[in-house]
Design goal:
By secondary structure, the protein is of the alpha/beta class. About 35% of the residues lie in helices and about 15% in strands. The strands form five sheets. It has a four-stranded mixed β-sheet with strand order 2-1-3-6. A three-stranded mixed β-sheet has the order 4-13-8. Helix 5 links the parallel strand 1 and strand 2.
């Protein structure tokens, strides 16, 4: 009895069990830590989607410059009837051989009117008849041409506005006219401020003897790149396919035909890539062609343009070269560059570099350059008369 009484007494004075509050709190902390670790990993891997609670995706959608994540991988989907038809046409165009015993380069000039460097181009073309064609789209006036290579080479033209769909409509018009000649195998878009950097022979061999098109194409996750994308372009054009690049292209014949034949993707840009649409500044001639070829034939383009433009000012317009800028050293420096460089428009200003590979060999990137003022013509003619670069 004494022993039992002692046990009973001890059981009555045993300390009460701890409440579960501490354990629950620890469990909550663990779950929250695991949750945010999971989100962090998604951001690092570029797979964060805008359906995660408490994420900043709403802010990113409105201010793409503040986002550094990439969209999630595309989910397999069924193509629309229009997409299927478009893919069949593009496939057959790309697989069709474009052969000519006398391949020519079509030089297509997009200009408001006069061609201030007509004399320079005349000197460039001399002695190479039968290897090139000239086409001029004058959007405002059609002045008299002085060079025999430019006389009667104006095509039916229409008004062009910067940043407007009319700009690429004019480029398509040039391509359509140049494609009528079956011997034209390469198509070079040039402006009235463009000049050649090398001899005709060098440029001819460079373009004819490679089977890629020179279209500048890179992914810019900033406001002037992916920030211009509109969800109205879905399902045919997804954010992951959206690309940016300069308008000054050089296309092989199959790609020129693809551009003329395409209505599926171009109709999306016509409707939803406009200055001011959804508060954005989408510019068709900087977005359409890079996006198109990134979708239909990404391995068929070189991802850089053979036309040099200096965007170091980081503004809406590139650097303009005046008389005081034009020297032999300037032209030699530009023509010697063998690495293409792109800078993103986000806050980090990431620099993307790639070697300019021609048939697997690193070579100079640029065959042409812009933007030169009309007053530089005499100095350029003098330099080119003693220019030693092939």
């Amino acid at each position: 009895m004494g022993y039992m009484q002692m046990l009973t007494t001890r059981s009555r004075h045993r300390s009460p069990m701890k409440k579960p509050t501490t354990m629950i709190l620890l469990l909550c902390i663990f779950l929250l830590s695991a949750y945010y670790y999971f989100i962090h990993q998604l951001i690092i891997k570029g797979t964060l989607v805008c359906y995660i609670p408490f994420s900043s995706c709403g802010k990113c959608e409105k201010y793409p410059d503040s986002c550094d994540y990439l969209p999630p991988p595309a989910i397999e989907r069924k193509y629309t009837n229009d997409e299927i038809a478009s893919h069949v046409v593009v496939r057959d165009i790309l697989n069709a051989p474009c052969l000519s015993k006398n391949p020519k380069i079509a030089f297509m000039f997009l200009t408001p009117g006069s061609l201030p460097f007509e004399r320079l181009w005349d000197k460039f073309f001399q002695g190479h008849e039968g290897k090139f064609s000239v086409y001029v789209h004058s959007s405002k006036t059609k002045p008299l041409r002085m060079s025999r290579y430019f006389i009667n080479q104006d095509i039916p033209s229409d008004e062009v506005h910067w940043g407007n769909i009319s700009m690429f409509d004019a480029e398509r018009r040039l391509l359509a006219n140049a494609l009528q000649d079956p011997h034209n195998q390469r198509f070079v878009l040039l402006s009235d401020s463009c000049i050649p950097l090398h001899s005709f022979g060098y440029i001819y061999d460079y373009l004819i003897n490679t089977n890629v098109s020179f279209v500048e194409c890179f992914e810019d996750i900033g406001p002037q790149g992916n920030g211009r994308y509109s969800r109205h372009m879905l399902p045919e054009i997804q954010m992951k396919d959206f690309r940016k690049g300069g308008q000054w292209f050089t296309l092989k014949r199959q790609h020129a035909l693809v551009v003329i034949a395409d209505n599926l993707y171009y109709s999306k840009f016509r409707a939803y890539c406009k200055l001011g649409f959804e508060g954005k500044y989408c510019i068709v001639d900087e977005q359409y062609l890079p996006t198109l070829f990134n979708i239909v034939d990404p391995g068929g383009i070189a991802n850089w343009s053979v036309t040099h433009v200096d965007w170091s000012k980081r503004g809406w317009h590139p650097k303009t070269y005046g008389v005081e800028d034009v020297t032999y050293q300037l032209l030699n420096n530009i023509s010697s560059v063998d690495v293409s460089m792109h800078v993103t428009s986000n806050m980090k200003k990431e620099i993307k570099r790639q070697p300019c590979l021609w048939n697997g060999i690193q070579r100079p990137c640029y065959l042409f350059a812009r933007k030169f003022t009309p007053q530089t013509i005499d100095k350029l003619l003098h330099i080119f008369s003693n220019y030693s670069i092939n």
